[in-house]
Amino acid sequence: MASPASAALPSVDMEAVVKAAQIDPRRADDTLTPGAKASVLLVEQALDARNLLDPAYVDGYFGTKTIDAYAAYQRSLGYTGLDASGLPGRTSLRTLGDGRFTVVRELTPGARTTYRGATVNTRTKTMLAEAERRLSREFVITQGSYNPGGDTSSAGTHDGGGVVDLSVSGMTTATRTTVVRTLREVGFAAWLRTPSQGDWGYHIHAVAISDTDQSPQAQHQAGDYYLGLNGLADRAPDDGPPVPKLTWEEYQRA
To answer: Which position among 57, 88, 196, 253 has the lowest Cβ density within 10 Å, counted as fewest Cβ atoms?
Structure first.
């Protein structure tokens, strides 16, 4: 049972904050992420109180200044590398909110594990298993997560968690589209990659939206997906099947 003091504190919706932290830095304007303003404001006010964020940026918009401030806060806790990317994690958000706010709808990627011979985290594994169940097929994972420097053509997207590449060998064009659609429906930003787009063969690239272990490059791809883009450097229009954009947690509640 919550203490009277904690019960009186406002709450930060972590799902909303993480979504905004992925999308807002990729926007061309200062449009707020729907449903995130109140929670982002509480986070920004806490960063301002620690002299990490200029009050001018306490506005409910989790843009690059707020990302930088949150990364500085993570470093102040002793985090380094991907743990100090500016994307809020459960522990750092709880600590930031101590005495100021409680955290609800918490997110965690879970522990690192192995699935289909590739390294992923527990959340990603569960998402892939659900997509496989719906498709009645098993994936061949050609590249997993937590693979810094493993494939230079990936531009760092696989350095952290929540990202996989899947083989499309033996799939028809229609099947490829169905697989991408199903991955999107369970919470991945997923695309069919083709040789015309870069130095790679045909494969499916999938980013688990709101995975808090994402590398900055994967964060950018998730944000671009929300904005209707293809997740590549040219930021061209999304070329995948249209679906309602859901996180894994939203899919489970639907």
So the answer is: 196
CA 49 to chain centre: 27
Positions of the chain with pLDDT under 50: 1-2, 4
Q: Which of 208, 52, 55, 49 is nearest to 123 (CA)?
A: 208
Residue 152, pLDDT score: 74
Q: Compute the distance between CA of residue 79 and CA of residue 151 in angstroms, rounded to an integer.
A: 25
Provide the β-strand partners of residue 237. 229
Task: Give strand ranges (E) for the chain.
Answer: 11-13, 102-104, 112-115, 118-121, 141-143, 163-166, 188-193, 203-208
- In a 3-state reduction of DSSP, which class is residue 22? helix
What is the reported pTM? 0.95
| φ and ψ at residue 23, rounded to 5 degrees | -85, -50
What confidence score (pLDDT) does residue 1 get? 45
Q: Tell me what pLDDT residue 185 has.
A: 98
Per-residue model confidence (pLDDT) at position 5: 52
Look at residue 136 in the predicted model and tell me its pLDDT: 98
DSSP letter (8 states) at residue 229: B
190: three-class secondary structure by DSSP: strand
Phi, psi of 52 (to 5 degrees): -105, -15
Maximum Cα interatomic distance, the chain, rounded to a whole number of Å? 60
CB 210 within 8 A of CB 19: yes
Which residues lie below 8 Å from residue 21, measured CB to CB, with a gap of 6+?
62, 66, 67, 70, 86, 87, 88, 219
How far apart, in whole angstroms, are the C-alpha atoms of residue 187 and residue 183?
7
Looking at residue 151, what is its pLDDT? Answer: 74
Angle of helix 216-226 versus helix 14-23 axis, rounded to 10 = 90
